[in-house]
Automatic annotation (TrEMBL):
Keywords: Lipoprotein, Membrane, Palmitate, Signal. This is MliC family protein. Residues 63-129 form the C-type lysozyme inhibitor domain. SUPFAM superfamilies: YdhA-like (SSF141488). InterPro entries: MliC, MliC_sf. The keyword Signal applies. It comes from the Bacteria. It holds the Pfam family MliC.
Length: 135
């Protein structure tokens, strides 16, 4: 009797699984695509969340300048400063200034100003050069 009940339970489970028509069952590709869409939807953040995240962490940007110089800039938003490293590995800390629009960091004879992906880098004793963010 125990085997008969077990057989009935297994048969019932198998019929429940196979009750869907083969043409309506999602293919592997469709299932993967659906999971990817759901994962992306779950990770979307609001504008306020994105702004809070940017204001409370360090953001690294790499600039390529017209004079051939490559600058790596760490914008430390919580401390209102930026560290600029040139191609030779030399680094200088700049402090954030109030800009009407865009960014403005300076310290003694160094200055980084810009808006969007464009910036102007002024270094001690050299002509200012225009730069473009590449990362």
């Amino acid at each position: 009797m125990r085997h008969l009940i077990l057989f009935a339970a297994v048969a019932s489970a198998l019929s429940a699984c196979g009750g869907q028509e083969p043409s309506k069952a999602p293919t592997d590709g469709e299932a993967v695509r659906q999971r990817a869409v759901e994962a992306q939807t779950a990770r979307r953040r609001t504008g306020a969340e994105l702004q809070d995240r940017a204001l409370n962490r360090v953001i690294r940007t790499v600039y390529l300048c017209d004079n051939g110089e490559r600058l790596s800039v760490d914008f430390d938003n919580p401390r209102a400063m930026a560290t600029v490293r040139n191609s030779n590995g030399e680094a200088v800390d700049l402090y954030q200034e109030r800009a009407a629009d865009g960014i403005w960091y300076k310290a003694s004879a160094y200055e980084l100003r810009g808006k969007g992906i464009l910036a102007t880098w002024s270094a001690d004793g050299r002509q200012p050069t225009d730069c473009r963010a590449i990362d």
